């Protein structure tokens, strides 16, 4: 059987310290992405809401318009900055996420853009599961007060390497997405995300390792750096996890960059050792990757 990851590749997770100044955030992201690609990274991931503070009140203020595609520079400076940067860095860039305004409907989305080394837009993922939680005395957050959900899974073909899947933060809590992506052949699941001090401590690593373990694939989580002056305190701890659910590298809460080599053949080695891939009992329960599934990529 062909290897899911066709050739070994270095993945970078860029844990950025962002500010309220979008232009600064974009130029700072450029510096850190170029640092990662100088270290050999060919797939570079930015955090959720990497060019604005994170919070429902900021989404309308920082939103950019992406449709029709390509947008003008004025509609989306981030689109153009990332496209140019992918070309300059000669790498795939999974551009974390930004708030998106769809002008036609006046709806806001939490949206991730992925660019090829040519600068071409490869895929757009709108966060499918909105972050609505209420843990008394700890944290209440309702993205659905201002955002609308996306309605597609995002699988992206990187011709030299294979297929990756991109989803955003809270999406990681829905294992069906990951399982479908893995069963469709993804070697890597990427989640730009901004967990917090409550759920980060509880579930960040657990979710990353669980998605890797269930599916025997690589997983990358990319968070903003923690800012205790901000209203929302991100957990940080961006991490790369291997197909045997082992944490390969993890940052602390400060700004930093993870560069991790993903090895061709490793997924198959893990699946040979623990062959759940061949042991599934679709005669007993349905295969979630079959049937009507909406994709974007
Ligand atoms: O799932 C969580 O605990 C955090 C999710 C989150 O922060 C987000 O979706 O932005």
From TrEMBL:
Domain annotation CN hydrolase: ranges: 9-264
Gene3D superfamilies per UniProt: Carbon-nitrogen hydrolase (3.60.110.10)
Keyword Hydrolase tagged: yes
Record-level GO cellular component terms: mitochondrion
InterPro entries in alphabetical order: C-N_Hydrolase (IPR003010), C-N_Hydrolase_sf (IPR036526), Nit1/2_C-N_Hydrolase (IPR045254), UPF0012_CS (IPR001110)
GO molecular function, a single term: omega-amidase activity
Keyword Hydrolase applies: yes
GO biological process, one term: asparagine metabolic process
Keywords assigned: Hydrolase
Family: Belongs to the carbon-nitrogen hydrolase superfamily. NIT1/NIT2 family.
Name of the protein described by the UniProt record: Carbon-nitrogen hydrolase
